[in-house]
Amino acid sequence: MNPSEMQATLEGTILLVDDQPEQIDVIKASLEEYFVVKIAIRGNFVFPACQRGVIDLILLDIMMPGLNGYEICRQLKSLPETQEIPVIFLTSKDGQDDEAVGLKFGAVDFIRKPSSPSVVLARCRNTIAHQRAKESLRRKNEELQQALQELQQAMKIREDVERMSRHDLKGPLATIIGLPELILEDYNLTDKQRSYIKRIERSGYTLLEMINKSLDLFKMENGTYPFDPEKMDLMVILERIVGDLGKHSGPCGIDMVIESEPDCEPFDSFIILGEKMLCYPLFYNVLLNAIEASPENGRIVIGLSMTGDAGIIRITNTGEVPMEIREQFFDKYVTSGKSGGTGLGTYSAWLAAKTQSGRIDLDTSQAGETSVIVTLPCPGVQGADSSSSGD
Q1: pTM, two decimal places
Q2: How far out from the chain centre does Cα 336 lie?
Q3: CA dist., res. 382 & res. 60, Å (int)
Q4: In what order do the strands lie in the sheet with 299-307?
């Protein structure tokens, strides 16, 4: 093995600072099989040696002519280019005060002279390993901080882009909302035509609300959404969604019904604590998913029940969720068998439920059926109706 290959296999470079030849020979012999060992016999030689190459550890004798070990250590620790190099003092002194002074100046360890070669080697190895682990941790922390800054910058850019997108969408949407009002002033419209125009107008306002809330999905993901719950009648929202989804369910002959669960009294209203603009997309996405998964002439049941201080909404449709996506049903981008499906509908529903201190679960225990169960907090049944905010 040539010298360059040998050096490549060594564990680092140690600078031994001592003016006693016999001590230099003993310590060098114990280390040179594993380290490159450089020698400085005067304190003022230390700094040029550190400038000429990377030093992983300094073994520093305390009693030196000229600059003693304490002063050398103090100067090393005061300079940015050398302050991170670990220093181990070599000393023949036994006093604890000497150790205290050395530690005060920044030494990491003491080796008594004379000392066993195996002890010297072990102390040097452990110190260098610890220093490298600390340096690795420092670099990883810097990388993490850099990554965090880049992520924060990316989040800001995303918010800015979404904000601009919302602004650009509102222009043409204003026309979609405004024209139906003008058309409805025409007395020649039939009742059916008026119904269609009002549906367009209502859908336009719904889209406007959803655009205004588009950034909220991002805020829900990073936990910064300002959730402001209120008492509200979920029955009104569910009935509205069933009507809005008629264009999807009607052509397929799918019947959607809202009813109380078998063990519950019929509900005239269903009061929960939440936000309308979170509940609408939540149940819209779940019901649209149920329609798309149902066979023609199927039936979707929206079952309502209450237990304790929670309202439970069970949405059941015929058809089964593919086995391969059941465990990840509410994960982001998970979809199966849908042309153009994004896998965001069930994920956003899960996120909306979580943000409202609720939960959403998948029940596939009944063969041939799929149930999505949404649990949301409610203020309690008694006296709730009178405080409903409606829609």
Answers
A1: 0.50
A2: 26
A3: 81
A4: 255-260, 299-307, 310-318, 369-377, 359-363
